[in-house]
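Hi U.,

Before I forget, here's the chain from the pilot set. I'm dumping it here mostly so it's searchable later in email.
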Amino acid sequence: MSSLTSTMAMEEEQRATAEEKVRRILKAYASGQPLFPRDVLQDLSRQIDQGREEVHIADLDGVPQKHSLKVPAWCADWANSYRISYCSIQAMTTVNPFMPDEILRDQPPVAICYTRNDKKPENSLQEVRKAFDKQREVWQTSEACEALQKQLATLSLSRPITKIVCFGLGTLGRLSSRSAARSHTQHAAVATMVQALKARQGNRNEGIRCFAQDPAYDEVDIALLRSIGITPLDDPKGFLAVDESTLVFCVSPNVPVKQIIADVQWPAAMIWNTVRPSEPDVAKWEQRVRNGQVTWVCPYTTDPDSSRVRKMVSHYVQAPVVDMDDCLGDLTIYMR
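Structure:
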């Protein structure tokens, strides 16, 4: 057999293997098997709290896989910490043109990966607080703030909300970043939600607790968050904090929050990026040619919708967030 024929046979075998793997994953997903079971996240959180150097995380077949929380030598030159990796249904079933062999590797929905994480604050707490107070005032006098209050006061809600859990609102402390003002606005909007919900719920609840999970938070972020009544949570504790009386608030996160929430717990309400009526669970990268240069465009975001997410939100009353000032982005309120 020639080397060309051998190579073609190998590629055909790999293609068939990849297609079979994708079919198996999609069949499991269509049957309702969760990618992100609550008990898996609870067990992982427990192992992390115990200070282990190694953790075991069940894969899609329920088989525990070993992961190191200590940065391995092979990536020590560029990584100094671990983080939890969440793989969406699209990421598990879509072939990346830059790494076509990746689809053949084991890609469990929940795993440990390694990253560079330098959390040294760029600005002092006093500087960040001053910037936050200024942006909060801008938000509180905006039409978007007034509209959000009215929407939360009037939309149908079947049970009182006792908790707000936020994901991916971004660091508050990097004032030089172009996204700083938006991050400050998003955090300021949490207090608006609390005020609106307390007003409509009267004395039926003693208070609304607020939590936020974002790996980007540094010590200045944490201090400021606590001062404005928001308790920071380490991953995956934010997901585990969600219950039937929670409002989930999320804006363009870097993990598939929608798909995780759909598996872990349907909350009382969500305010997050609008779920589109149709989007395939399997997507294809787009090839574009401009000025003779070929580029590839990823067909899904870091927080993609899915058939399961669409099924979940169909049980909620929906209303687009009125955001004429572009303070928050393309968000929709979902209330149960």
